[in-house]
Amino acid sequence: MTQLLNVSRAARLAGVSRHEIQNKIGSGQLETFEGEVKITDLLRVFPQIDLDRDPTFEHLEKIKANAQPKFPWQQNELPSVEVLLRRVQTLTGLLVQTKSKLDRNVELLENVTRDVADLSQEKSLSANARDRISSLHQVLTERPDAGDLQPNDAAILFTRNLLLHIIAPNVQFIPSGHEFLVEGGDTVLDGAIRSGLNVTYGCNDASCGGCKARVISGQVVETRSPNCKLSDHEKQMGYTLMCCNTAVTDLVLEAAEINSPAQLPGQSVETVVAGTQELSDDMSLLHLKTPKSQNFRFFAGQSATLALNGGARTTFPIASCPCDGENLHFHVPKPRDEQHYDEFHDLQRGDSVTVSGPVGDFVLRDDSTNPTLFIACDGGFAPVKSLIEHAISIDKIEAYHLYRFASPDMTAYYDNLCRSWRDAFDNFNYTERELSGDPAAAMSAIADDLPDLSRFDAYVAGPRMFAEATKRTLVENGLPADRLSFEILPDREFHLKAG
Ligand code: FES
């Protein structure tokens, strides 16, 4: 039986990115059958797949390790016993079908072997024909016993794929075609959000009905009882609530997605300060936490307005990934001197902050897989970090080129994080430079590294002088102007020296 794998699963089994699989499909090295690839073709194109190492089991271990309490947004767990049993039950049907086909083939082979034996004794045949039939009979009877068979590579991947069905069913949304795996104890909605999809939902608490989606194929199971009930008609139509159901099998769901920042609802969420941390001499991290049932929704790269009880308000880029709308990170520049006292620097754990928005259109192009330049100056790293984290989670970009510039009196904080991205991903390049003198000269250095920018997208965040010099230089060096997005942040966040 030919085993077909969707792109997510093929990537997981081969231990490569989805983008790499899509590249092989695009270049014709991998043939697709309604969007899926054959296990045998996967083994041919990725002969380096390590069959002695089982990434599915390793993944299981990782889920278990993550189940230990760490940071709230990193918690994950195994599916409940009930969910695991339901998934195992659905796979028994496939195994019964496969075993039935195998038994039927063995029976056919035995019949053919018997007929060939009879034929080899047929006196009316020529001696030459009888010899050839005898040879064929010998080949048929010399089949090794099933117990002597070494499992072949395709069979090993077949069983791993079965295990992956139990641990992480695949969900495809229509009409967008977006795909993701539902891992651990996640609901369908958790899986969609974690994988960076901007799906339509409301409370994430089974109360509002905002996450309704229609099951086109596959099975779901409730992870908790919903407070809001679907009507009988909706149930008959196959509707389900994604925030209180998980996948039993692979699913195709008709679900509404938000495609642009303009479609996001305006929000105002009461948060508390979960912590602050000094990132450098110039910058602090402010970590705000929303109520569980009222996550803040935004596109990577957008900003939010923070308001304090005393009336102070300011707008900061959100520095974290929209895949975790409960934990919002902001990089808060330190006041330059005592005259520039900033109340946002005095915030303490437990203080209340109202977060409203989001605002801004410095967001990833959803349709692009181009190699991408991310250029950040000083505090411009905050929205760029959010973009990169989101891009990594949706795994579509061909190559990342991150350039960070620090003005002479600033430090490029989170340098270790950038280095860890470079170490973790083969297609991630990271360069850090001090910005001295004319920003255009620094941009020329990028053009020297990447002489042909015609296939690139670029995202630039920094003060106006920096962003404008960057735009000019990159476009002069071949970057299509419509592939460049930039976010100009107030100079107070950069301490950038003019001239
Ligand atoms: S998001 Fe409100 S019911 Fe699911």
What do these coordinates show?
By secondary structure, the chain is of the alpha/beta class. 33% of the residues lie in helices and 21% in strands. Helix 10 (381-394) links the parallel strand 16 (372-377) and strand 17. It is globular, with a radius of gyration of 28 Å.
Condensed summary:
This protein is α/β, with parallel strands linked by helices. Helices cover 33% and strands 21% of the residues. FE2/S2 (inorganic) cluster (FES) is lined by residues 201-211, 228, 241, 243.
Number of domains: 4
Give the name of the CATH architecture of the largest domain.
3-Layer(aba) Sandwich
Largest sheet: 6 strands, antiparallel
| Shape, per Cα inertia axes | globular
By CATH, the superfamily of the largest domain comes out as Nucleotide-binding domain of ferredoxin-NADP reductase (FNR) module
Strand order of the largest sheet: 13-12-15-10-11-14
**Helix fraction by DSSP (H/I, runs of at least 4):** 25-40%
Q: Return residue spans where pLDDT drops below 50 for at least 5 consecutive residues.
A: 63-75, 493-499
Structural category: alpha/beta
Bound molecules: FE2/S2 (inorganic) cluster
Percentage of residues in DSSP E strands: 15-25%
